[in-house]
Amino acid sequence: MTDRTIPADGIGMHLYTMRDVLKEDYPGTLQKLAEIGYQTVGVSGRFGHSAADIRRFADDAGLKIVLEHVGYPRLTDDWEGALDDVRTLGGEWVVVPSLPEGLRTLDGFREAAAAFSKAGETARQAGLKLLFHNHGHDFEVVDGQVKFDILVNEVEPDLLGFELDLYWVVDGGQDPADYFQRHPGRFPALHVKDMAADGSWEDVGAGKLDFPAMFAHAESGGVQQWLVEHDAPTDPWVSARTSYQTLAQMRY
């Protein structure tokens, strides 16, 4: 461990964490996140607002939107429109959050790799970068092949990066630091989500994941954004504050 710290403008909130309060008051929620200290957010769900509305809310709160989650079907259903919306938001990454269940086979991952190559080229031409967000099942080993690695190996690095969800990597039996070292520069964004002793989700710093050991190799991985996430917080505001304080004070 060194005295490295996460840059202040690298600590963000993935807004899926805050979905219950966003439904009630989207602009007010962003204002409160900024007051806690967050400087960036990842968008997941619009709750009836347009991309322009959300951009205005973020600008008013002094937050930068870095990415938006866009469902896999959008790759062939108005992908240009999805990219336009991310540009309106001011983001730099368009993120596919998961593969459809029917594609969670080796052949399905290869099909997805081909689709990502095509969509990633269109994104690059639009000045954006396509990322994929993992879950635990993506690391299933079939016939000696880690399914996730098909995407890493079969899509050119300039066409596909990854928003690596640290909880789900560990849940899938892998080590994020290993990926950072083996595939430099592929992981510009992280979901920083902790794991409780029983394997459930936990606020960052209150669980068992060794984040400093992971982050020691974050520079190799190309990490620019550490986005807090909790899939089912008892109180999203407690989770937001606890997680922010943990990351802001962390040395690695």
From TrEMBL:
Gene3D superfamilies: Divalent-metal-dependent TIM barrel enzymes. One of its GO terms (molecular function) is isomerase activity. The keyword Isomerase applies. SUPFAM superfamilies: Xylose isomerase-like (SSF51658). Pfam families: AP_endonuc_2. It comes from Kribbella italica. Residues 30-234 form the Xylose isomerase-like TIM barrel domain. InterPro entries: IolE/XylAMocC-like (IPR050312), Xyl_isomerase-like_sf (IPR036237), Xyl_isomerase-like_TIM-brl (IPR013022). This is Sugar phosphate isomerase/epimerase. The keyword Cytoplasm does not apply. Keywords: Isomerase.
